[in-house]
């Protein structure tokens, strides 16, 4: 899997105002900005992203994903 493919999968399942994905094919890091994160704790935000990946996480196609999940307000303040 490429970074562009992973980015497309996340974007298809989650409305993102900003999305960056980097990695080596199995280990990934992402910065994800979405209004869907409003009012959610960090664990809930991560669960929402994992839900977009579904079987790819369970099958180990995506072995590890480090995430920075932000609301649009948090992103603009950083």
CATH architecture: 2-Layer Sandwich
**Helix- and strand-based class?**
alpha+beta
Integer average pLDDT: 94
CATH fold assignment: GMP Synthetase, Chain A, domain 3
What spatial form do the alpha-carbon principal axes imply?
globular
Features:
three-stranded mixed β-sheet; BolA-like_sf; alpha+beta; globular; GMP Synthetase, Chain A, domain 3; 4 helices; 78 residues; BolA family transcriptional regulator
Describe it for me?
The protein is α+β, with helices and mostly antiparallel strands and 78 residues long. It has one domain: GMP Synthetase, Chain A, domain 3. The protein is built from four helices and three strands, in the order H-E-E-H-H-E-H. A three-stranded mixed beta sheet has the order 1-2-3. Helix 1 packs across helix 2. The chain is globular and about 35 Å long. The mean pLDDT is 94. InterPro entries: BolA (IPR002634), BolA-like_sf (IPR036065), BolA/IbaG_stress_morph_reg (IPR050961). It comes from Ramlibacter aurantiacus.
Itemize the secondary structure elements and their pairings.
Elements: H1 3-13, E1 18-23, E2 27-33, H2 42-53, H3 55-58, E3 64-70, H4 72-77
Parallel strand pairs: 2-3
Antiparallel strand pairs: 1-2
Helix pairs in contact: 1-2
What's the quick description here?
β1 and β2 (27-33) form a beta hairpin. The protein is α+β, with helices and mostly antiparallel strands and 78 residues long.
